[in-house]
Design a protein that fits this description.
The chain has 270 residues and is α/β, with parallel strands linked by helices. It has helices at residues 2-21, 30-40, 64-79, 90-93, 100-107, 122-129, 157-174, 204-213, 251-269, and strands spanning 84-88, 112-116, 142-146, 179-183, 196-197, 222-225, 238-239. It is built from 9 helices and 7 strands, in the order H-H-H-E-H-H-E-H-E-H-E-E-H-E-E-H.
């Protein structure tokens, strides 16, 4: 009997030791573990932030020349009495330089203002219209808009077209009764030194831009007009006689421009 009791005691002691050895592990803090995993989770390389299209983000130019011209436009607008507004970049500004004689003979008798600034991109014009308030004081019947060539080096054709669309939308928003003569971006050929730049040497992005912005023509308030072919010769070449640097117009080029928009502009002014 004593031997039996001794064996029972040994068995009970061994069982207790075994239970202690397999005791339940302490529970993990699920919330803490989840947070730690979230912190160390690697980023999916396929998920990238979509970059903003700079062509539609209003941009204020702060170089002295641009500021001076902008302020002069604001002062001109305060005087009112503008029937036709030319809006754009250096090619538009050039009416006061190479195109001065053509401007005098064609538009001086009209109430016309030239708001062109060399180097402007679509986003710069957008700033001038919004924060720059260049339309305050004037209600033109027609705005002749040609913009986008300076975006060619930094934006895709689609992005540039969006920029042009943003400018047109802002003009329509601020002056819903004003009609817009939207000109196609003129042909160009960067760095070409020969007298004539054949079609294959001209910037192909220009055609891509124009194909998209042509759809902004609504048949009523916005008229799209491509006068680009008129600057080219019979073979489709771009001559220095028309664009000395294959971008900016000569006096001959400005005469071509004036003649090309004469009737469409007259129709829009009716």
């Amino acid at each position: 009997m004593t031997k039996f009791r001794l064996l029972a005691g040994v068995f009970a002691f061994a069982t207790a030791i075994t239970l202690v050895g397999v005791a339940e592990e302490p529970k993990k803090d699920i919330k803490t573990e989840t947070k730690q995993e979230a912190k160390t989770e690697p980023k999916d390389p396929a998920k990238k932030d979509t970059p903003k299209n700079s062509a539609i983000v209003p941009n204020e130019r702060k170089d002295a020349r641009s500021v001076k011209l902008h302020l002069s436009f604001v002062e001109r607008a305060k005087k009112g009495d503008v029937q036709v507004l030319f809006l754009g970049d250096s090619i538009t500004e050039g009416w006061g330089n190479s195109g001065k004689k053509v401007w005098a003979s064609t538009y001086e008798s009209m109430k016309v203002a030239n708001f062109g600034i060399g180097g402007d991109k679509t986003q710069d014009v957008l700033w001038r219209l919004t924060e720059g308030k260049e339309l305050e004081g004037i209600t033109p019947k027609v705005c002749v808009l040609m913009i986008g060539t300076n975006n060619a080096a930094s934006n895709t054709a689609e992005q540039i077209a969006e920029g042009v669309k943003a400018d047109v939308a802002e003009l329509r928003k601020q002056r819903p009764e004003m009609k817009i003569l939207l000109l196609a971006v003129f042909p160009r050929a960067s760095g070409f030194k020969e007298e004539v730049a054949p079609k294959e040497k001209q910037n192909p992005k220009i055609g891509e831009i124009n194909k998209i912005i042509s759809k902004l023509d609504d048949g009523k308030m916005v008229k799209y007009l491509d006068i680009g072919p008129k600057f080219l010769n019979a073979d489709g070449g771009l001559e220095k006689a028309v664009m000395p640097d294959m971008l900016h117009l000569s006096e001959k080029g400005y005469q071509i421009w004036a003649d090309a928009i004469k009737e469409p502009l007259a129709d829009l002014l009716k």
